[in-house]
Amino acid sequence: MAYDGYSQLKVLVIDDFDNFRMTICRMLQELGVEDVETAVNGAQAVRFSRRRSFDMILCDYNLGSGKNGQQVLEELRVNKILKHRCLFVLISAETSRSMIMATYDYEPDAYLTKPITSNILRQRLDRLLRQRQELLPIYDALDEDALDKAINLCRTCIDSDSRYTSQCQKLLGNLYLQTGAHAEAETLYRKVLEVRALDWAQVGLAKVKQAQGEFQMADKWLREIIVNNPLCMQAYDVLAENCKKLGDDDQLQTVLHRAVEISPMSLVRQLHLAQTAVDNNDLITAANAWRRAVRLGQFSCRDNLENHLNFARTAAALFNEDVQLAQDLSRDALRVLSEIPQRFEMTSEVEAQALLVESQVLAGQGQKSKAEEILREVESTVGEEPAGLSIDTQLDQVVALKALKKDIPAKKRLDDIIERYREDEKALVKIDRLLEEPLSEHNRKQAKRLFPNHLGVHLNLVQALLGEMEEFGRDEGYMDLCLATLKKVGCRVTTGHAQYKRYLQLQDKVKNLGLKQEGTRDVE
Fold it and tell me: Could you give the CA distance from residue 54 to residue 52 in angstroms, rounded to a whole number?
């Protein structure tokens, strides 16, 4: 059945190519659309969407320089510019899985593949607009943040046995979860699953169990969903959240690592993986994830200064762990730092932070004189006792001093910072990264429970012991500790784990040093 309300629609068409843009406009006019506005790039599209409300947006994925279609949708969703009543249709000639997976994170209403004919466009729009017309009261209630009204309208739609019952059930389940009506949500999802094993209902039921504190049950169900549908990204996201609630940071990193393998263009997941790897002291994974996040962040509304600084900080810290990889990453890190003035508003503090991190990277590269010159430049600007600066900038200065082997002034600055922030729990959590024993209450509580189980920490220990023996000779006590640590890691690491490659590399180093191999896995 054809939709008969095209003449009442307000439509925005976004494409950087005049011919295709005009072709889509002509097709819409043939359908009866009278109010069509066009935008030639992502930034213009966002401005137009802020200025007026549209009933439908047709957006090409490739928009030339600047934002792509997925980033337009991302910004409209994140900043709540796009109303529920507005349909967003993404158009592209590209069909790569990674690109499609990334776009679906922000749930376009439809995805059309070029070439598009008038018949194809009419068929797809007819279906979308008929659904929109019937569910419009629900969408309007959601736009008004009238959740109770939206819930009642969803129930009415379901009770009337509408052809859009499944869509209403999905909306209603989300509303129940959003309002804390967990029992109602569970009843709804179970009723749906009695008829058909839909992914969204299975994930919704797992979210109910998670909200009720039944984390082990939620974990089991989410893993079953992923086994049956490895491309169900929502299941990975909820499973990651569940691992966090369980306090299992190793499993959290494994889940995130698998998720970004499937959907590598997801900025949010790359950022989550990067921060989790930092918390797990896995600098290799962290640095690579930060690097990908910086690349994906260009033109994204989620891009921020800290992503750039954290990538460079991690690349600099890697010189203490993997010099070859650090050398490779450090070149990108310096480029990223050099681009900060073009991408972000510069303040004196931002400039100081960027220069201090640059000094760390250069020191790792062996460019000591240049690193010292930059450090002196910062100190001449902010002073040698930068108490007025943020805790992050002050700690960057300590790390820069350490990188330049200026251990005595580094210790003095760090001691001063500790004294200054002794009552500031949030600051102490950050300071702990430079200490052997944590000062913050949070990390003291977590140390016994978390740190012994972090595979990255164990492998860091093996690497440090091997470094000592490579420099000063074989030590039986060190060898025994290496073997015991590798054995412990070997019992937990799997071939798909983010630390597996590093585990094997350290085993090879153990071989090369001629250490005893009893008790370690896959060394013989």
Answer: 7
- Give dist(CA 178, CA 173) in Å, integer: 9
DSSP lists the bridge partners of residue 59 as 14, 90
E strand or H helix at 510, and its extent? helix 500-512
pLDDT digits (tens, 9 = 90+) for 184-223: 999 999 999 999 999 999 999 999 999 999 999 999 999 9
92-95 CB contacts, 8 Å cutoff, 24+ apart: 92/60, 92/61, 92/62, 93/62, 94/61, 94/62
Our CA dihedral for 122, 123, 128, 130, rounded to 10 degrees, sits at 90
CA-closest candidate to residue 184, choices 158, 222, 146, 221: 158
Nearest to 293 by CA among 313, 319, 264, 322: 264
Question: In a 3-state reduction of DSSP, which class is residue 383?
Answer: coil
CB 97 within 8 A of CB 78: no
Q: Between vectors from CA 277 to CA 274 and to CA 281, what angle results, nearest 5°?
A: 135
DSSP 472: H
Is the pLDDT assigned to residue 521 strictly greater than 50? no
pTM of the model: 0.83
Full strand arrangement of the beta sheet holding 56-60: 35-39, 10-14, 56-60, 87-92, 110-113
